[in-house]
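Re-run requested by the PI after the first attempt was lost when the workstation crashed. Everything re-entered from the original request form. Ligand of interest: iron/sulfur cluster.
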Amino acid sequence: MISDLRIGGLTPLTTIDYPEHLSCVIYCQGCAWQCRYCHNPEMIPVKAEQAISNSELEQFLLKRQGLLDAVVFSGGEPLLQKNLVAAIQNVKSMGFKVGLHTGGSSTSRLEQVLKYVDWVGFDVKDLPQYADALIQVKGAGHANWGSLKALLKSGVNYQCRTTVHWDLISPGRVLQLAQQLSQAGVTHYNLQIARTGNTLDPALIDDSSTYSMVPKGVRLKLCEEIKPMFEQFQWIE
Ligand code: SF4
């Protein structure tokens, strides 16, 4: 039996949401943050129609035993689910590894969950002094970096990533952010360009490519400067 979760969606099979693992993704409904570039704003409200029931999820997972390596809890923000630890334990007892996608909005909840997860995809929003403006919640940048420290301390495998929207962060600040992350001990880092077809802040919606706002030469130079700072680094456009 899987402990009750508010489920906003399910991807039955993916190879990209947990590196080198065949996994499914459970999208946990609800998020305490309001990131301006959020490309999935319908996942933010805590109350929404359940995409699949918890018993349907259980049936789905029972049929995937031995076929999938891992189950990834994504969002929204999975840390908002009060039954997350129990649901993770249920999934592990079925023989799956567990991945977690999070921005770390609650450091104490993350610390509980880190005891059970096998891999974390962690969103670093911006430098702490700028992150509140992006997330539109006071103190969120502090929580984001506090949770990053807890993750690094835990020794759990991870990949940090930052979503870049060129209306919200300059190339110089991306470099500064990478330097600060490297100094903090981050070894695995990706930069990914924001998807702008459907953003929470309508002012950021742009059907043309936002990357054109920063010339290719500047992006390549930035990539070359950042790459040596990390054991693993990828720029995803
Ligand atoms: S992008 Fe921000 S607002 Fe959207 S789900 Fe993630 S943390 Fe929440």
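Saved to the shared folder this time. Residues 7-167 form a domain with the TIM Barrel fold (CATH 3.20.20.70).
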